[in-house]
Amino acid sequence: MTEATASAQGLAKTSRPRSLVLEFLGRLFREKPLGAFGAIIFLILLLTGIFADFIATEGFNVIHPLDKLKPPGGEYTYFDADFNKQTGTYLLGSDQLGRDVFSRIVYGARISVIIAFSATTLSIIISLTLGLMAGFFGGRIDMASQRFVDAWMSFPDLIILIVAVSILGPGMWQVILVLGLLYGIAGSRIVRGAVLSTRENMYVHAAQTIGASTPRILLRHILPNIMAPVIVLFTTRLAAVILAESGLSFLGLGIPPPAPSWGGMLSIEGKSYMFLAPWLAILPGVALTIVVYGINMFGDALRDLLDPRLRGGGGRYGGGKPRNKRRT
Amino acid sequence: MPAILQVKNLKTHFFTDAGVVKAVDGVSFDVQAGETLAIVGESGSGKSITALSILGLIPSPPGEIIDGEVIFDGRDLLELSDEEVREVRGNQIAMIFQEPMTSLNPVLTIGEQVAEPIEVHKNLPRDAAMARCVELLAKVQISDGENRARDYPHQFSGGMRQRVMIAMALSCSPKLIISDEPTTALDVTVQAQVLELLKELTQEQGAAQILITHDLGVVARYADHVNVMYAGRIVESGTAISIYDDPRHPYTIGLMASIPNLDDDVKEKLIPIEGQPPNLAKLPPGCPFRPRCRHAIDRCAVERPELETVADEHKKACWIDVNGQ
Q: How far does Cα B201 stand from its chain's mean position?
């Protein structure tokens, strides 16, 4: 009897620290297999981006002029340091300049990761700042900022992007800045909405009655409570930023060549040699599709799992039935 | 006895599209050190707004304190800067809310929340704050405080959460605790337990308490003084005993008559107060209780009665001399 209670207490103690992250992962795999699949793709993208130097078989700009437009598995010859003739294999073929498509896709992943994370982080920071201010202070601040957001959002995204990039010129930081700003301002609405409903909670009033300062209330009481929508916003924005960057690069407004961006690969090599060497168009396109799909699935699963309405019940659905409710 | 809190002619109005809502319209009362003052009244009579006005937490716009003084510890709280008022809130005046289910932040642990007022006001190091927190949890009869402090609010029952709120309120040893219907959302069995605890702990600390409630049973048992509010004004005030034994205002008499008595014959009907509370944005001239009052005379429709002394410490705002018996 005493042993049993002792071991039960021991269990209760050991289960505390692991509860959050591990339990969440467990639920992700159990309840949202597709989301878990997306998470894995996302992880692969991340690792590919970080370790591109080790994964790529060649530099993204190494040219083999004799072995252009080889199909996947095609061979190429080169001379090593001692001027001996060597042969290598193009894993995914080569382009019109004789560059290894596999290596370019791997380095393209790095560019996608850098842009996606920087632009999304920037956008979330902007969204949080604007949204928290507008939602919490309300009144004129809310009015002014929301009318500004309205005006901003009445322009089509692509127009803003093209205008901004043509003023700033193509390049990595320009793309990051413009995408961060674009999605940041649009996302402030979602943050504002979450703040508006969180602000009315009794615990916010309670925090006021204990004399907490406004920054403290914002950062300690409101921010953690809106993290669920913010995390979801983050993942969906990641996918959107990757797509937008590819779109810009496709139009020649993103990352300038020769740096390999998936969008640029589709446009320069892919479009021109579509019939002669279809792998040039198909492979970057497939990479893009899988990554965006994976991140979206992951984001979807996160949204379902982090739904605040499920909090308190251990986060499980009643009887595990699927929910199809969509929020934007 | 020194009054720890003096509220003088407090007027809190809300400026809405439908007109000016006079939620609190000239309320004055004193709270003596160590006593429990109950504020009783229907929903919308201005009880909670009075409490929030004391703490300067009226949402503005639309609300505004247009007149009055709230003297606490020799200072008028309404004159203080935001920062100075924050220093008083939670530190010297603590508040307990009606809804224990929603007054705790779901993403912070109980320990973090109980320790928060200490963190905000006392500048204690983290482990000292946590030690104090465990001590407070023990005081409100939550055992195994060290482990429970790491739990989240959803792992606590309603009564336990309200006790956590009490622990939070007591954490800085305030001189005044305002409890806004602390037991409304709780089970009847838990109600008594929570109120007992609240009374015991405030007495132990020598703190005064303002107990806002519409439960007259609670008032009888826990209050020293009672203010009865109606339509933003105090209509009768006195010691709990005098109000119960000898209610003088028709409204108070009506309230007393509508309490079911366990000793009464089951067939005996309760006598409710007819009608609805008035719309505070469109108060008629004269006494706001007149439309529902059985004793109303012509004068009631014209002039609003002020509080006048009827006996020692017993005041009422009514033109006619009615008697409960």
A: 17
How far is the alpha carbon of B189 from chain A, nearest alpha carbon, in Å? 24
DSSP, collapsed to helix, strand or coil, labels residue B82 as helix
Contacting residues of A for B154, CB less than 8 Å apart: 311-312
* CB nearest to A211's CB, from B86, B147, B150: B86
Find the CATH number of the domain harbouring A105: 1.10.3720.10
Are A13 and B150 a contacting pair at CB < 8 A?
A: no
End-to-end CA distance of chain B: 32
User: Which backbone phi and psi does B228 adopt, to 5 degrees?
Assistant: -100, 125
Query: Is the residue at A211 inside a domain?
Result: yes
Global confidence as pTM: 0.77
Please give the Cα distance from A126 to A114 (Å, whole number).
18
A1 within a domain of the structure (yes/no): no
CB B315 within 8 A of CB B242: no
The CB density around residue B34, as the number of other CB atoms within 10 Å, is 16
In this prediction, residue A326 has a pLDDT band, given cuts at 50, 70 and 90, of very low
A143 in reach of chain B (CB within 8 A): no
The tens digit of pLDDT for each residue in A220-252 reads: 888 888 888 888 889 889 999 999 888 888 888
Contacts of A224 in chain B (CB under 8 A): 105, 107-108
Instruction: Please calculate the CA angle A89-A93-A98 and round it to the nearest 5 degrees.
Output: 90
Asked if A216's CB is within 8 angstroms of B102's CB, the reply is no
Domain span at residue A194 reads: 31-62+99-310
The answer to whether A205 contacts chain B (CB < 8 Å) is: yes
Cβ atoms of B289 and B251 within 8 Å: the answer is yes
Q: For chain A, how far is it from start to end, CA to CA, in angstroms?
A: 53
Q: ipTM, 2 decimals?
A: 0.77
Which residues does B contribute to its contact with A (CB < 8 Å)? 55, 57, 61, 85-91, 94-95, 97, 99, 102-108, 116-117, 120-121, 147, 150, 154, 165, 168
Chain A residues inside the 8 Å CB shell of B173? none
Question: Which residue of B87, B94, B105 is in closest CB contact with A221?
Answer: B105
Nearby residues of A112 by Cβ (< 8 Å), 6 or more positions away: A45, A49, A242, A245, A246, A261, A262, A291
Angle of helix A101-137 relative to helix A227-250, nearest 10 degrees?
Answer: 140
Three-state SS for B308?
Answer: strand
Percent of chain B beyond pLDDT 70?
98
Which residues of A fall within a CB distance of 8 Å from B104? 203, 206
Tell whether A318 is covered by a domain: no
**Token couple for A81:** 């340091």
Contacts of A221 in chain B (CB under 8 A): 105, 108
State the Cα angle at B145 between B143 and B148, rounded to 5°.
100
> What's the number of domains chain A is made of?
1
Closest CA to A251 of A231, A226, A271, A279: A271
What span, in angstroms and rounded, lies between the C-alpha atoms of A309 and A269? Answer: 49
Residue A328 lies in a domain: no
